[in-house]
Amino acid sequence: GLIFCLIFFCVAYPDDVFGILVHLAPLKAGDHDEMKVNLSVYFLLVAAFEILYFCWLTVDINLTSIHAFEGVTEHSVYAGTKGAIVAYTRELAIELAPRGIRVNAIAPGAVFVENQKKLMPDFNPKTAGKMIPAGFMGTPRDIANCALFLASEEASYITGAVLNVSGGLYM
Length: 171
What we know:
Blueprint: H1 2-12, H2 14-23, H3 31-54, E1 59-63, H4 76-96, E2 102-108, H5 115-119, H6 125-129, H7 140-151, E3 162-165
Parallel strand pairs: 1-2, 2-3
Helix pairs in contact: 1-2, 3-4
């Protein structure tokens, strides 16, 4: 069915197909490395779950991004890997819940870190924060506080969730 639909679309709307192909962001040299970095740790973690389970691991908190849910130009690889982490989190939650292991994820939005100043000397977090409904950028502490909550007993009934920590940037 999918191949037929794709062929039909290409034959019926050739100009649209060309337009779509022209506007796709080309893959860059480092994209494959980004995929490996963003995803390989999760495959290694699953391989280690048997050992971690016997060490009384009961909580797994994964980091994704609001880009898993919202597209941005030239972020297809990054967004794709972050979306994969969301799917992986939900699947692991189902598979590990019978063992008493909770699996959740945090999807940070715009979080200011000092390296942004090194990469973009003119970057102003106060100006960037004005574009966020909360009126400011988040901090690493905001993400840490969310992780502490998810790891706590107060979150014992939460599994398979992705908590959006974005100051309202993504809803």
